[in-house]
Every structure is written in structure tokens, then in C-alpha cells.
Design brief:
With about 500 residues, this protein is of the alpha+beta class. It has helices at about 25-30, 100-105, 115-125, 135-140, 150-160, 170-175, 200-210, 220-225, 260-270, 275-280, 285-290, 295-300, 305-315, 410-415, 425-435, 450-465, 485-490; strands at about 5-10, 10-15, 50-55, 60-70, 80-85, 185-190, 190-195, 215, 235, 245-250, 255, 315-320, 325-330, 350-355, 360-370, 380-385, 395-400, 410. Strand 12 (about 315-320) and strand 13 (about 325-330) form a beta hairpin. The longest helix has 18 residues, at about 450-465. It is globular and about 75 Å long. The mean pLDDT is about 95.
Length: about 500
């Protein structure tokens, strides 16, 4: 298709000539005069711009997802059904949506600037069927800031509607709201945006436009538009390549498609890869997790990206795909230098393969940041230590983020452990060796000595936490990914 087409509040809309890097937020406000959706930060942090999009759930059925419209470029909603706050009140006397009623009754709004975004996050919660623990409500709302009401009344309102699944026009229209094809070859305002739906179409697009950049969720790349006002001339979205989205069990482990969103990864990893799951739990907020992808996280090659340390510790392999087929690169060779990947021109990251974690191994990942939600790691760490029957370390992978120009394993600390008994003395020696592995930088998040100390303490904490249970799940909702051995034992 060569024009933009999406369903906005029940009406199909077609657009031509618009810049493909117009954000959905700017489109709604500037072009359609729909000013209910607010702009706060324009970088995914405040949630004021939240709208709902019908996406296919793991069961293959459409489900409402709250997303940040400030980070969605218009072609990213191609063929999809959107709901904005304007649609919530029914025409005539049918009144307001339960989320709006609950907010009003709980006195959850004062100046009201954040309210539409909060109501849209609650809109998703209204139709979710998996909000079965109190912390999940916090998790649902943590992408929305309010500066004047205070969060207690807002949370009380969320408690009223979460999982209530009313039979209304939104639940009734949902089965008919499955996304149409996203395939697109669009030009507007001198910019190009293509969304190939097959690999053949992708290779042709790359042959014709070898200078185009990939995008998937846009939670990283869109910031170039909203913060740096960049005019990106050519983009290729990988979002319509279904093969990239699959999360499957394979011989000896798991194949994680690069296009899987962080939310999808969270559901998949819960039982299968508890160490990765812990990191994913503290990754951004609901709206970011619904758009951000595994591939996008790794391909930014950020030294503080959260998924790389967890995957490095698990011994993952990157599956790289080009026109000639796939090639495999151990993840610890995927980041050759600061912000660089092992991808060659016209290649993409197709998937990550992760071996199954041996039951004899200890494995956990940790994230240390100034805030629990929506914060960038100061230091992150992920550890995998296996021992033999006598308790000697047979394998150690200690991976860190925020300690070097790339996500990196602590080679000296690993060497200090292998062959040694897994006890406090060996861990102390390895913790000491970490200072020789890294020369971290000092910045506003933490000084170099602080980072080095935290890195060593996380290893000590890992030893403590895995005393009773080797791969403990995170209990409840913690102030951080760290928990004590006593908490693990309490369960
Ligand atoms: C508010 C906010 C909170 C965030 N919180 C966190 C957090 O807690 N932890 C964290 O680690 N990150 C966080 N991020 C960063 C970001 O959300 C993640 O890195 C996310 O996983 C990026 O995925 P994406 O699909 O949106 O990437 P995009 O923005 O679509 O792409 C990012 C880059 O990767 C390239 N790319 C994407 N997929 C591929 C592929 N398959 N092959 C080759 N190249 C590819 C693109 O060309 C682009 O250069 C946050 C971002 C925001 C805005
Ligand atoms: S405007 Fe703040 S998250 Fe979009
Ligand atoms: S009611 Fe004013 S910011 Fe929330």
C-alpha cells in the first residue's frame, strides 16, 4: 500500500503526503484537533499521550494495549485500530467509560493534565484478565506521572476497573479489530517509509535504498525525531515480518525472535528463563514494553541496555540474517565497540538463541537505578554460575552493563571463580578481581568508584540470594531487582 490507513475511534482514515515521521500525537492534536491526548515529555516518560491500540495477544486474539502516541510514527499504526480518550464517552446518554467514572469517584484528578493518559492506561487494565496481584496494578500505571493529585486515589480507581471486562462497545468491537496488513511503501514530504511483509520485499527495498535505517518499536529511534528534530529520510520497519516475532522452544533452549516486544518476552520468560524475566520486569513501563523490542534493545548497542547483560550471562547467540541466509555470532562478540554491532550492511538481527539453564546452575540478573520505574541503569549485572557435585565452579559468566563502553563479561572475575569451590572466599576473590576487569566512567548516575563497588556487591548479593534457591523468582514487587536470601526463603 502506498498511503497511510488506520482506524481511529471506529472510522477508517486514509492519509497521503504527510511526513512519515509525524508522530501519532502530533497528528491527533495538530491535524485532527483531538487535543484530549496530551503532550508532556515527548519521550515516553510521562504517559500523558497514552492511547490504546488493538494488537494480537499470545492467543492470536486482538487485545487493547496502552502505548505512548509521542513515540509512534504514523506508519507504525498502519492497518491498526486506535482508541483515543475522545472515544470513551458514548454519544447520547450512555455516559462515561468505567475508567472515567472510577477516576471521578476516587477524586483522581485535579489539574487534569495527566488524566486522559491515566484513563487510557486504565482502559487497557479494564479489559486485561491477568491483573491477579496488587503489584501488577502498580506495573500497569507506572508509565503515567501525575504531579498534583497523588497516586493513592488514582490507584484506587484502577482497583475498581482492572479486569472488570465490561460488555461494552470496546469489548464487542475487539474481535473485529485485528490489525490489517501493515505492508507499506510510502513517500511523503520527501521522506520514505517502507514496511515489507516478506523477506523478499525487504531485500528488494534494501537493494533500492541501501542507506535506509531499520526501525521496529521506535522507542529508541523516535527520540531522534521528538528530541533532536531529525528529519529521517528513509526508514524500513521490520514490524510486519511475522517470523521475527516468534518466541519458541528449540532443541536445548529457546529462540527469541528479535521483533518480540518486551511485554511478549516478559510473558514467555516467566517460567522458562527467570533470570531474564527479572530484568524484563524492571524494563521501562507498560507502554514502553508494548512497543520496545528485543532486537531494538540489542541493536542500539547501548552500554546500559538492560537485556544484553542478562543474555550474555545466559550464553546467548545472535542469529543474524541477510539475503544469503543466517549466520550465528556468540553474543559476547556482537558488540565490538561503543554503539557498534557485528551486523554488516543489509543484515538484521533475526533472533537470539538461549540455551536452557541447567538445574544445577545459579542464574539471576540485577538492575541498579535511581528509581524503580522507567529509569536507566547505573549498573546492571547478570550472573550464571554452575557447579559440579563437589561444589566446584565449572562455568561462570558474569556480565555487566554500565561498566564499560559495551555490555561486557568480567573475564578476570570469571577466571578467579572457575575451578574454585563456590563459597564466600571465592566470591570475595572474584569480587576483588572485578576492579581489574573494568575502568568505568563517572557521570551523573554514579562515580567510577561507586560503580566498581556496586558491581562487586552485586556478585556478593548473588551468592547470598542463591544460597537456598538457585534461580529464584522475584517475590512480589520490590524496590529493586535485588532481594535477600531471607526473602527468597519466605517466598
Ligand atoms: C521511556 C523509556 C524507557 C525505557 N526504558 C528502558 C529500560 O528500562 N531498559 C532498557 O534497556 N531500555 C529502555 N529504553 C530504551 C528502548 O525502549 C529499548 O532499547 C527498546 O528495546 C528498543 O526497541 P525498539 O524496537 O523500540 O527499537 P527501535 O527504536 O525501533 O530501534 C532501535 C535501533 O535498533 C535498530 N534495530 C531494531 N531492530 C533491529 C533488528 N532486528 N536488526 C537490526 N537493527 C535493528 C534500529 O535500526 C535502531 O537503530 C527505554 C526507552 C524509553 C523511551
Ligand atoms: S508525552 Fe510523555 S510519554 Fe508521551
Ligand atoms: S491531576 Fe494534575 S498532573 Fe495529574
Amino acid at each position: 500500500m502506498n498511503h497511510l490507513r488506520f482506524n481511529l475511534n471506529g472510522e477508517w482514515i486514509e492519509e497521503r503526503g504527510l511526513s512519515p515521521t509525524t508522530t501519532l500525537l502530533r497528528y491527533l492534536r495538530d491535524r485532527r484537533g483531538m487535543t484530549g491526548t496530551k503532550e508532556g515529555c515527548a519521550e515516553g516518560d510521562c504517559g500523558a499521550c497514552t492511547v490504546a491500540v488493538a494488537e494480537l495477544g499470545a492467543d492470536g486474539k486482538p487485545t487493547w494495549r496502552a502505548v505512548n502516541s509521542c513515540l509512534l510514527l504514523l506508519p507504525m499504526v498502519q492497518g491498526k485500530h486506535l482508541v483515543t480518550v475522545e472515544a470513551l464517552k458514548a454519544k447520547g446518554d450512555d455516559g462515561y467509560h468505567p475508567a472515567q467514572v472510577a477516576m471521578a469517584r476516587a477524586l483522581g484528578s485535579q489539574c487534569g493534565y495527566c488524566t486522559p493518559g491515566i484513563v487510557m492506561a486504565m482502559f487497557e487494565a479494564t479489559y486485561r484478565t491477568d491483573l491477579d496481584a496488587p503489584w501488577k496494578l502498580d506495573d500497569q500505571l507506572c508509565g503515567n506521572l501525575c504531579r498534583c493529585t497523588g497516586y493513592r486515589p488514582i490507584r484506587e480507581a484502577a482497583e475498581v476497573v482492572a479486569g472488570s471486562c465490561p460488555k461494552d462497545r470496546f469489548s464487542e468491537s475487539l474481535p473485529r479489530s485485528a490489525p490489517e496488513s501493515m505492508a507499506l511503501s510510502y513517500e511523503g514530504a520527501g521522506q520514505r517509509f517502507a514496511t515489507p511483509a516478506t523477506f523478499e520485499a525487504l531485500w528488494s527495498e534494501l537493494d533500492a535504498h541501501p542507506d535506509a535505517r531499520f526501525v521496529v518499536g521506535g522507542t529508541d529511534l523516535s527520540l531522534e525525531v521528538t528530541k533532536k528534530f531529525a528529519v529521517l529520510p528513509k526508514l524500513i520497519s521490520l514490524e510486519a515480518l511475522k517470523e521475527l516475532k516468534t518466541l519458541t522452544e528449540v532443541d536445548g533452549g529457546f529462540r527469541l525472535g528479535s521483533g518480540a516486544t518486551v511485554s511478549e518476552l516478559e510473558d514467555f520468560c516467566k517460567e522458562r528463563l527467570p533470570s531474564l524475566h527479572r530484568m524484563v520486569r524492571y524494563f521501562g513501563a507498560r507502554q514502553i514494553k508494548h512497543r520496545g523490542t528485543l532486537g531494538g534493545n540489542l541493536c542500539t548497542a547501548s552500554p546500559i541496555g538492560d537485556l544484553a547483560p542478562a543474555l550474555l550471562s545466559l550464553g546467548a547467540t545472535a542469529i543474524i540474517r541477510g539475503r544469503g541466509g543466517e549466520r550465528r555470532v556468540p553474543l559476547d562478540q556482537f558488540f565490538p565497540a561503543y554503539r557498534k554491532t557485528a551486523l554488516a550492511a543489509k543484515e538484521l538481527l533475526a533472533a537470539i538463541e538461549v540455551p536452557r539453564v541447567a538445574s544445577s546452575a545459579r542464574a539471576i540478573s540485577y538492575k541498579v537505578s535511581k528509581r524503580r520505574e522507567l529509569d536507566i541503569s547505573t549498573v546492571s549485572a547478570a550472573f550464571y554460575v554452575d557447579t559440579d557435585a563437589s561444589g566446584r565452579v565449572t562455568a561462570a559468566r558474569l556480565a555487566y552493563g554500565g561498566m564499560a563502553a559495551t555490555p561486557k563479561r568480567a573475564a578476570n572475575a570469571e577466571a578467579a571463580l572457575v575451578g574454585q569451590p563456590w563459597n564466600e572466599a571465592s566470591v570475595a576473590a572474584a569480587a576483588k578481581a572485578i576492579a581489574t576487569d573494568f575502568t568505568p566512567m563517572s557521570d551523573h548516575r554514579g562515580s567510577a568508584p561507586y560503580r566498581t563497588l556496586v558491581a562487586a556487591n552485586l556478585l556478593r548479593g548473588f551468592f547470598d540470594e542463591t544460597r537456598a534457591v538457585k534461580q529464584p523468582a522475584l517475590v512480589g514487587r520490590h524496590a529493586a531487582t535485588v532481594q535477600t536470601a531471607e526473602e527468597v526463603a519466605r517466598g
